[in-house]
Design brief:
single chain; 5 helices; 21% strand; rod-shaped; 38% helix
């Protein structure tokens, strides 16, 4: 059996027990990879964070655009209607906020010329004047039978004089009639949808109210709406 020399045995022992050394190149390479990984993660975070903010700004811009469009559309809605009659003009302020559906229907009918030539076929002094289809029975039929004088009147908006309304009983275009009150009437709230108020031409309403009528409150001489004009300002 061959003998191992003491020097060779010492070298083998050092190789087995000595710690492994990490080279400088390995340290630099590992550090570079770590830095690159951290930079990549940071860049990714910045990218998605910026994209998220841009998306939020874009959605906010669209929302503001929609709001501005709606505001512009709302500002274009007519706020007044002018009823031209043989006696003169009556200007009515429209209550878009409180009666939006009725006002929209009224504006649509105005644009179609529905009220042009419409007659005031029932005139009840100190009560109401009604314009519409002379052959139809309107919401005032019960009023003529149960007409009352009130000592204590409700002074809410719907019960004031010179308010513009239409019947609750008819919602089709043909049955859309106009009522202008000439005195505070408490029970009108049960029969009419009030959607406007006379702001100019109260004297014209009173002149129409004074025309001669027969026993059915129909004017003996025809009087009606010559034309209807919509305005945003007066």
């Amino acid at each position: 059996m061959a003998k191992i020399k003491p020097q060779a045995l010492l070298l083998q022992s050092k190789k087995k027990k000595g710690p492994n050394r990490i080279s400088l190149t390995t340290i630099i390479l590992s550090s570079s990879i770590l830095v690159l990984t951290l930079f990549f993660l940071y860049a990714t975070y910045r990218h998605w964070s910026r994209r998220s903010r841009m998306q939020m700004k874009s959605e906010a811009s669209v929302f503001e655009g929609d709001n501005s469009f709606m505001n512009m559309k709302k500002s274009n809605i007519p706020k007044f209607a002018i009823l031209d009659t043989a006696k003169g003009s009556i200007t009515v302020e429209l209550f878009k906020d409180s009666s939006p559906e009725v006002v929209d229907q009224f504006i649509g009918l105005c644009q179609k010329g529905h009220f042009k030539g419409m007659l005031f076929h029932r005139v009840i002094k100190h009560y109401v004047i009604q314009a519409g289809d002379i052959n139809s029975l309107g919401a005032t039929d019960d009023w003529t039978l149960e007409r009352k004088h009130y000592s204590q009147l409700d002074t809410s908006l719907k019960h004031e004089a010179f308010m513009l309304g239409t019947s609750k009983e008819k919602h089709d275009n043909r049955g859309f009639e106009l009522f202008i009150t000439t005195a505070p009437i408490p029970d009108l709230n049960e029969k009419l949808i009030v959607f406007g108020r006379v702001v100019k031409g109260v004297d014209i309403v009173q002149e129409i109210e004074e025309v001669d009528t027969d026993e059915h409150y129909q004017p003996k001489s025809p009087i009606g709406i010559v034309d209807m004009t919509l305005k945003q300002k007066i």
